[in-house]
C-alpha cells in the first residue's frame, strides 16, 4: 500500500517560483491572464495542497478514531499529525488546544455558545470593535439575545485604526469577553493585540482574536500573545474550504461544555448518562473534514517553507507600491489608511459604484471584490455603500497592481472620468 506522502517543499527563492506552485494562476479569464486580487475572500491553493487532498482520497481514505484496520489507523495518524502541525504553526502549547471546525465563523459561534452563554448574566458585556466582520458580530448578538448581555463596540478613527483610549474606557467591571479582529478584512488595519490582551487580562477578561485575515499575513504566536481564543479558516491561508481552527487554552476548553452532540465527542453513552470525550475531541462531534485537515497541514508546511516573515515583507512591498499608485488617481479614496496595516486596498471612486468598477476590472482579467465585505458597520462608519477591495496574497506582484491600474484607467474611460 502506498503511503500518503506529500509533495516536495516549495522553492523559497522568490515570487516567480511561488507563482509556479499555484496551478490556477495559469488560467485565463475573458481571454486575459488571471490577476487574482481577492485573497481576502479566499486564497488560491498550491499544488502541494491539492495533491494532499487528492492523495488522501486515492490512497488513504477511511474514517478516523474508529477502525482497527490499517487505512483507518493511518487516516487517524494523518489527521492528528495535522493537528500537531497547526499547534506548532501558531505556537500552541499542546495539540489538544486545537479544535477542528469548519472555519472562523464556526469557531466564534462555538465560543459564543459554549464559553460565553453559560457564563453570561443580564447586563454583562461583550466588547467588540467597529471594524469587525459579521462573523465576529452576529454570534455575540445571538448570545446577548439569549442571555440579556449587552454588546459594546469600540469605535475606530478616520484611518480605520482602533480608538485605544475608548477601548480602555469601555473595558468595564461588566466586561466578560473581548472579541476583536487581528487584521480587519475591509480596512487592513492591524490591531494592537498585545495591548488589547494586556489591558483585558489586567481586569481578568479573556480575549478572542479573529485571525481569519491575519493567519496568512502575520506570524501568529498564541503563546507569546497569551490570547485565550484564536480563530482562523484554512481557506484563507492557502488551504481548503470547510476546515478551520479554534485555538483555546486547555483550561478553558476543559471548563466548556460540548457544543454539539454526536459520534466521536463521547467516551460512553447510555440512555441515563453520557460521558464526554477528552479535549479537543469533545468539540468535534461527527465525522470531521479529514482530508481538509490534512490538506490544511500541507498548506501550513507550504507557508513555513517560504517563511511568514518573508511573505509579510514581500506583501508589504506590493502594498506600498499599490497604495502610492492608487492614491495618485484623482477621485479615488482609500478606505483604511491605518499606520499599521497589511494586504488590503479598499477604495471608492467618485461617481462610480463599486460593483461597476468590479465588473469592468473582471473584463480586464482582474478579480477583486466589490461590496460590503461582510462588514456593513464599517461601510456605515465611512459613509459608503460599498468599496472595491483588492487584497494581496504571497503570489501577487507589482505587475498585478499595474494590471489593476490599467483596469481602473478603463473604468475612467467608460465613465468619462
Ligand atoms: N473574520 C474575518 C476578519 C474574515 O475576513 C472572514 C472571512 N471573510 C471571517 C471572519 C469569516 O471566515 P469564514 O467565512 O471562513 O468562516
UniProtKB/TrEMBL annotation:
Record's catalysed reaction(s): (sulfur carrier)-H + L-cysteine = (sulfur carrier)-SH + L-alanine
Record EC number: 2.8.1.7
Location of the Aminotransferase class V domain: 35-404
GO terms of biological process kind: cysteine metabolic process
Annotated function: Catalyzes the removal of elemental sulfur and selenium atoms from L-cysteine, L-cystine, L-selenocysteine, and L-selenocystine to produce L-alanine.
Record's protein name: Cysteine desulfurase
Family note: Belongs to the class-V pyridoxal-phosphate-dependent aminotransferase family. Csd subfamily.
Annotated signal peptide: none
UniProt keyword Transferase present: yes
Names of the cofactor(s): pyridoxal 5'-phosphate
Matching Pfam families: Aminotran_5
GO molecular function, one term: pyridoxal phosphate binding
Coiled-coil regions listed in the entry: none
Enzyme class, first EC level, given as a word: transferase
Taxonomy, superkingdom: Bacteria
UniProt cross-references to PANTHER family, sorted A to Z: CYSTEINE DESULFURASE, CYSTEINE DESULFURASE 1, CHLOROPLASTIC
Annotated keywords: Pyridoxal phosphate, Transferase
